[in-house]
């Protein structure tokens, strides 16, 4: 067979292959629900679809979102991403944002968006379910689940006695090369904001410089950092408490060991900060009723049970118990930090950038 | 009977009339130029409205360091891709390499493997938790396995992703070049290698320079693989600024700097091409006599085999391993179908729109070469050449400012991608149009046909191979595309590319494997259409 004939056959075959593969799928192609259409008159029956910008991971909150659609029949399109990136996106988009709800991983990002006037006030019913310290003073955002900052440490390589009571002690050179963190993660950024508020700018800067001097391993997210402890890449990860439980359960289900434990810091230490993942409804939303239903559902007993028992976070409404094995929220000994004061995210980002911890 | 040389055909067109292009072509070209420039204008506006603090940020040592590493990565990529691309082009084009026809397809096939999939394969093999690393650790040989992160890993991945660009460019030039040059040299006593280096290589320099430029631009703008490999480059910093900065001015400023660097490279390449000696092809375009490799065929085969193994077989194998692992773990890949639908719902309209826009632009460039054609070419090339992340950011700024209702909807995304990849459709279309020769279109027009009818009945059937190549190239680029999709896809729309990238950066090897496999299969099927062997032209 001559070259030309071979190539003609090859081309034809490829063309047929590509067409055969793509045409049927293209015919079936339909983009998922995009920006909600503006409805001229608010309807009492909740039918509209909503878009949620979620700074939380799909693995953790995907199931409860699906459950919401099952229960209420309201379709939800979720845009997952990094909380800080999503907050920046909402600020950039302003009124043109397709988002109806912002589901953030920490209070700082919510405060930032609220201060920009982009969040609508929430109903008293929803706000009253959560204690004062876990919601916005002006009622623009509400906490959905609590998380304590911890050090996830290797149970094999780090003896209990070595662990410091204060997070500030991790700047000791003895920890060089053994620490991991995720400076791009909103929870850490919120923690730094808390340090700046409570301990002052200079102390926060000194701590960051001290950790930097210990050459920490940088991860994209908290889950990777905890996995780094398990795999031996690092000994200590500065993360939120709940990652350990989910990863441990998954590893043990697969028959692997997961030799990592959570080390809580001393009561009142800034390291023991308790933050909240929370929700706010965008003022520009075309589906405020459906968005309110979403917030309402995530603060219902069913969703709070989910957060308690499946993601191992701290539920925030009364009547829902914390998972077994977790240090109860009251015993964490959180420092007196007002979550409303964590909205200076920009200042923290500027500091992190100045110290070249993020780009 | 030989086809009229291109130069003579063009001269004839120019002599025939120095009239302006028809209004319809001008209007289309002008609209395209405006669409291509508007995002850049907004990027400049956002970047230059920066206050002092941001300018200080720009002048930090870290920024200088990042620019330096980016240029280092670009240089390494150019050196590597030329070192691989040119010899492979020569081997598959001018020698009697065993299985040459098969190798011709295989060495180009890595074009189908997006750099971030190659990066994912590298990390999923030898990164933490990687398949090869795990296996070696079981044998207590874990220390032998190098870490994939950092600049060397990035350069390796980028070289393997870009050498096909140099190869295709060099190969096209080799096929166009009259073999008589080399044969004359050989008849005067030069050995095959010497004849190639001294007589053919200089005529290939423009093509190699073009290929090298494409490789350098690719390396500068790539952020998909450098973020997976955690290599500190400018493009990665832009993405990081974009996602961790409340105010996007910093990202806009960095994007603008990268755009300027890219433009500088383009100007350098244009200058290089003007100064290089160009031998216009005269006489017969016939297949050259293949150079006998003799015992050198074994090293040659080894080279081809090694490159194909690492650039093609490795990613396919690693992805395959993780797909199998996923199936064993029972992770059902329900969303691969949704991701595939999403990718196709973008890539197919983009390819269709790009070729529809490309035909009039190509007609303008070939039929009415002049100021307008040159301006259109320069503007559309700029929109293509500037780093994807910069262009994506620019489109975000522009669409929020001008058409907020269309922001993050499919039409804007498709339009932005079609404009960006337009040169990929115009280039082969214009190329075949030029080979056709202007006389046929002239004849049709002189007999009373409108430009549209002349195009439809005369031109289009003859330039079909070029159009098909254009459609496939744009489709391939659109389905692999990352930054525009990340920033502008409708909420919740996850394409194959964005799924692979987000999962790979999070170390979720299993979740990334399914979409990666589909992307590889669709891309490889498309690349088969790109392989061409020229026929000797007869009139």
Tell me which CATH architecture of the largest domain in chain A applies here: 3-Layer(aba) Sandwich
Mean pLDDT of chain A: 86
Q: What is the 3D form of chain B?
A: globular
Could you please say which CATH topology of the largest domain in chain A applies here?
Answer: D-Maltodextrin-Binding Protein, domain 2
CATH level 4 superfamily of the largest domain in chain A: Periplasmic binding protein-like II
Count of DSSP-assigned helices of chain A: 13
Could you spell the SSE succession of chain B in H and E letters? HHHHHHHHHHHHHHHHHHHHHHHHH
Instruction: List low-pLDDT spans of chain A.
Output: 20-39
Report on this structure.
The complex is a heterodimer of chains A (359) and B (539). Chain A is 42% helix and 15% strand. Chain A has 359 residues and is of the alpha/beta class. Chain A folds into 2 domains: 151 residues, 3-Layer(aba) Sandwich (D-Maltodextrin-Binding Protein, domain 2); 135 residues, Periplasmic binding protein-like II (D-Maltodextrin-Binding Protein, domain 2). In chain A, strands 1, 2, 3, 4, 5, 6, 7, 8, 9, 10 and 11 form an 11-stranded mixed β-sheet that branches. The longest helix of chain A is centred in the first third of the chain and has 26 residues. Chain B is an all-alpha fold and 539 residues long.
Helix and strand arrangement:
The complex is a heterodimer of chains A (359) and B (539).
Chain A lengths: L2 H26 L21 E5 L3 H15 L3 E5 L2 H11 L7 E4 L2 H9 L3 E2 L3 H5 L13 E13 L24 E3 L4 H14 L1 H13 L3 E2 L3 H10 L4 E5 L1 H12 L6 E4 L10 E9 L5 H11 L2 H9 L4 E2 L13 H4 L12 H10 L5
Parallel strand pairs in A: 1-2, 1-3, 6-7, 6-8
Antiparallel strand pairs in A: 3-10, 4-10, 5-8, 5-9, 5-10, 5-11
Helix pairs in contact in A: 3-4, 6-7, 6-13
Chain B lengths: L5 H11 L6 H26 L3 H7 L2 H34 L5 H9 L6 H12 L4 H8 L12 H26 L2 H9 L4 H30 L2 H5 L5 H11 L4 H27 L21 H33 L5 H33 L3 H15 L2 H15 L7 H11 L1 H15 L2 H8 L4 H12 L1 H17 L2 H6 L7 H10 L3 H19 L12
Helix pairs in contact in B: 2-13, 2-15, 2-16, 2-17, 3-13, 4-5, 4-8, 4-10, 6-8, 6-14, 6-24, 8-10, 9-10, 10-13, 12-13, 13-17, 14-25, 15-16, 15-18, 15-19, 15-22, 19-22, 20-21, 22-25, 24-25
């Amino acid at each position: 067979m001559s070259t030309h004939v071979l190539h003609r056959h090859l081309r034809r075959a490829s063309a047929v292959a590509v067409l055969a593969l793509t045409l049927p799928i293209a015919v079936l192609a339909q983009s998922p629900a995009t920006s909600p259409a503006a409805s001229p008159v608010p309807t009492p029956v909740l039918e509209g679809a909503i878009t949620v910008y979620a700074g939380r991971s799909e693995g953790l909150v995907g199931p409860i979102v699906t459950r919401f659609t099952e229960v209420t029949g309201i379709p939800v399109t979720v845009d997952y991403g990094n909380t800080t990136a999503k907050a920046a996106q909402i600020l950039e988009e302003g009124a043109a944002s397709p988002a109806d709800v912002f589901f953030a991983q920490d209070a700082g990002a919510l405060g930032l968006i609220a201060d920009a006037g982009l969040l609508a006030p929430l109903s008293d019913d929803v706000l009253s379910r959560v204690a004062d310290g876990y919601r916005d003073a002006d009622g623009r955002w509400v906490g959905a689940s609590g998380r304590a900052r911890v050090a996830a440490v290797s149970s094999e390589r780090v003896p209990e006695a070595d662990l410091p009571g204060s997070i500030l002690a991790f700047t000791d050179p003895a920890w060089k090369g053994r620490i991991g963190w995720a400076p791009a993660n909103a929870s850490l950024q919120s923690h730094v904001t808390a340090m700046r508020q409570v301990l002052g700018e200079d102390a926060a800067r000194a701590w960051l410089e001290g950790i930097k001097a210990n050459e920490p391993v940088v991860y994209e997210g908290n889950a990777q950092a905890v996995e780094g402890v398990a795999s031996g890449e690092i000994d200590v990860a500065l993360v939120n408490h709940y990652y350990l439980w989910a990863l441990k359960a998954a590893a043990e289900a697969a028959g692997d060991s997961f030799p990592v434990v959570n080390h809580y810091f001393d009561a009142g230490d800034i390291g023991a900060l308790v933050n909240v993942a929370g929700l706010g409804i965008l003022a520009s939303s075309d589906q405020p009723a459906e968005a309110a239903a979403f917030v309402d559902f995530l603060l219902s007993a069913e969703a709070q049970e989910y957060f308690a028992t499946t993601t191992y976070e701290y539920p925030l409404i009364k009547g829902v118990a914390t998972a077994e094995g977790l240090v109860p929220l009251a015993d964490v000994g959180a420092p007196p930090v007002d979550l409303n004061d964590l909205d200076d995210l920009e200042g923290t980002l500027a500091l992190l950038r100045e110290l070249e911890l993020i780009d | 009977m030989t086809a009229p040389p291109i130069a003579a055909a063009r001269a004839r067109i120019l002599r025939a009339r120095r009239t302006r292009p028809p209004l319809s072509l001008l209007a289309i070209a002008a609209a395209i130029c405006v669409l291509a420039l508007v995002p850049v204008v907004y990027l400049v506006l956002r970047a230059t409205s920066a206050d002092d603090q941001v300018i200080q940020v720009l002048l930090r040592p870290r920024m200088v360091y990042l620019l330096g590493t980016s240029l280092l990565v670009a240089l390494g990529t150019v050196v590597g891709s030329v070192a691989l691309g040119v010899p492979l082009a020569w081997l598959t084009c001018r020698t009697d390499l065993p299985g040459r026809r098969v190798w011709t397809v295989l060495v180009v096939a890595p074009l189908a493997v997006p750099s971030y999939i190659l990066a994912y394969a590298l990390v999923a093999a030898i990164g933490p938790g990687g398949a090869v690393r795990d296996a070696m650790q079981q044998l207590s040989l874990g220390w032998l396995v190098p870490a994939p992160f950092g600049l060397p890993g990035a350069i390796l991945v980028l070289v393997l992703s870009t050498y096909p660009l140099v190869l295709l460019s060099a190969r096209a030039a080799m096929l166009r070049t009259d073999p008589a040059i080399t044969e004359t040299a050989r008849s005067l006593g030069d050995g095959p290698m010497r004849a190639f280096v001294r007589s053919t290589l200089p005529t290939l320099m423009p093509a190699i320079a073009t290929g090298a430029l494409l490789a350098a631009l690719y390396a500068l703008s790539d952020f998909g693989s450098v973020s997976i490999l955690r290599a500190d480059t400018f493009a990665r910093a832009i993405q990081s600024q974009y996602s961790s900065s409340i105010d996007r001015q910093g990202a806009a400023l960095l994007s603008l700097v990268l755009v300027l660097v890219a433009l500088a490279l383009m100007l350098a390449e244009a200058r290089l091409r003007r100064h290089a000696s160009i031998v216009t092809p005269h006489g017969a375009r016939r297949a050259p006599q293949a150079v006998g490799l003799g015992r050198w065929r074994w090293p040659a085969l080894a080279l081809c085999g090694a490159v194909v193994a690492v650039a093609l077989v490795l990613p396919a194998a690693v992805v395959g391993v993780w797909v199998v692992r996923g199936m064993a773990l029972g992770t059902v890949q329900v969303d691969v179908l949704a991701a595939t639908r999403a990718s196709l719902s973008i890539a197919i309209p983009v390819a269709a729109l790009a070729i529809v826009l490309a035909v009039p632009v190509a007609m303008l460039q070939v039929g009415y070469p002049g100021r307008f054609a040159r301006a259109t070419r320069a503007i559309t090339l700029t929109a293509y050449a500037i780093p994807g992340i910069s262009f994506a950011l620019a489109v975000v700024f522009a669409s929020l400012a001008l058409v907020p209702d269309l922001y993050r909807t499919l039409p804007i995304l498709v339009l932005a991608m079609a404009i960006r990849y337009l040169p990929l459709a115009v280039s082969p279309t214009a190329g075949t149009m030029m080979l056709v020769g202007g006389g046929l279109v002239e004849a049709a027009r002189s007999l009373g046909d409108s430009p549209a009818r002349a195009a439809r009945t005369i031109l289009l059937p003859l330039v079909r191979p070029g159009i098909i190549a254009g459609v496939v190239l744009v489709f391939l680029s659109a389905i692999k595309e990352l930054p525009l999709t990340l920033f502008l896809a409708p909420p919740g729309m996850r394409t194959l590319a964005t799924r692979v990238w987000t999962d790979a950066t999070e170390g979720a090897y299993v979740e990334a494997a399914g979409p990666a496999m589909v992307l590889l299969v669709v891309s490889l099927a498309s690349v088969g259409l790109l392989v061409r062997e020229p026929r000797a032209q007869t009139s």
